[in-house]
Amino acid sequence: MIRQDVNRIDAKRRAMLDYKKKQFATPTYKQQDYPYRLNFYDIPPTAEITLEQFEQWAIDRLKILAEIEACSFRNKTAAETAAHITPLLQKFLPLSANTSSASGAADQRLKNERQKDHYSHFILRLAFSATEDLRRRFVRAETMLFKFRFQQDDSKERRAFIESLNLDWEVVSDEEKRELAESLVNATPGLRRLDDESWYKVDWERVPELVERRSVYLRKGKAYVPGREQLSMIMAEFTARLDRAMELTSRALPRLDEDDRLTPILNHLSKNFGSAESVYSEGEGVVDGAPITASSVDHLSQHFPLCMRSLHMTLRKNNHLKHFGRLQYTLFLKGIGLSLEECIVFWRQSFKGFTDDEFNSRYKYNIRHAYGDVGGDVNRRGRGYPPYSCQKILSESGPGVGQTHGCPYRHFSVDNLIGLLQSTGVHDKDVLRGVKEDVEKTRYHIACNRVFEWAHKAEIKKVKEDGTWSQTDLDTIVHPNTYFKRSYLLKQLGKPSNTNN
Ligand code: SF4
């Protein structure tokens, strides 16, 4: 792994260093023991891991960060966020307390968990240090993750961890406390007696959040922070260190271009922040036992996300779709489990103005190609191309005149988008206002999830209450085929199975 020794050098020396020369100092192997559950990620990992671990660990962490960010975008409360990410953390990035380790096997599990946490953090640092926007989002999501874990930590272990950080917080002496008694009490809401609290003195820039909230007494450039605000101080410290580390990583990044094993993985990861495409595997959108045939597509389209609904509506209106729309829609239909034969029937019946010969010569080959039935790419023979993820649809070039592919949240004007939503039955003013806000902030898939949650409100409430679906079954949708499958299954609740609904 890449070392960042410059990070632990004092500020004056650091300013004089030539990072291009120093950032890849020969790594010295250092065994990490992980005595604490929490980690400030000051020391980069240097032991070897496999390329598979490198990628999979990063994907697992990315999934967590993307969900944390989505919760924040959707203004979920701290309690809602905790309820949402706890099972995801358990699944993708568990991190147990020392007290859970009572045997040799448990010790090893603890170490494995902490190693994965440590490495995945550093891998994503590399992936997200390229631009200021990515750095900012990464630091924000990581800080939220750290805060969540900090609050969940066993209090004894948490205290030991804080002591291990050697933070240069100066404890305010009793004498100074008495001298500033009135100011300290006035600046600490709810405090009755001076002796009920202890204070730390830190440079005021290190606790901007507390300064902004006017929760600290300021004097001669120092903030007097009450012990109860320890969480804020720790968070500020975590963020500040990570901000600095990300800066250094971004300067080191050009050298990494030389590594053609890691660069494609890192590029792929950075493209998927917010809509972690990699967690979708081919075939995942198929609903076992559902009647997916050419003749059922009209009926099933009520469960389609807006991108596919829009394509379907245009197809029915014009009896035709242009190439990219056909491709996007064909791959989606393949992803929901429509067989190649049924897909050909579907398109043949939909293209009403064409003779069989015209259809066969102009369109049939492309459908077969999408399914991998024909075509030159040996690797894809028999499988064809995977259905497009939101990330792919959102990032590829949008539709031109007469085209309908893409994502309506991203590629339609706001008026057209709202009109389309209304034509599909979304009339709730709050939802439409929320969608507009999401779109303005370029949070397209959040808008899509907002509509999904509204359209399935009763069903989601039910599966949550009766516990039949876990939180991981209800994570943020980042793939049109996940949208379909989830919608279909939710709307099937309480109906006899194998019905065409
Ligand atoms: Fe389709 Fe994804 Fe856009 Fe929703 S966010 S409409 S699923 S591309």
Automatic annotation (TrEMBL):
Residues noted as binding [4Fe-4S] cluster in the record, renumbered to the chain: 307, 390, 407, 448
Domain DNA primase large subunit C-terminal: 301-484
N-terminal signal peptide: none
Domain of life: Eukaryota
Pfam families per the UniProt record, alphabetical: DNA_primase_lrg (PF04104), DNA_primase_lrg_N (PF26466)
CDD domains: PriL_PriS_Eukaryotic (cd07322)
Bound cofactor: record note: Binds 1 [4Fe-4S] cluster.
Any one of the GO BP annotations: DNA replication, synthesis of primer
Keyword Cytoplasm attributed: no
Single GO MF annotation: DNA-directed RNA polymerase activity
Keyword annotations from UniProtKB, A to Z: 4Fe-4S, DNA replication, DNA-binding, Iron, Iron-sulfur, Metal-binding, Primosome
Requisite cofactors: [4Fe-4S] cluster
Gene Ontology CC entries for this record: alpha DNA polymerase:primase complex; nuclear envelope
Its biological purpose: DNA primase is the polymerase that synthesizes small RNA primers for the Okazaki fragments made during discontinuous DNA replication.
Family from the record: Belongs to the eukaryotic-type primase large subunit family.
Name of the protein in question: DNA primase large subunit
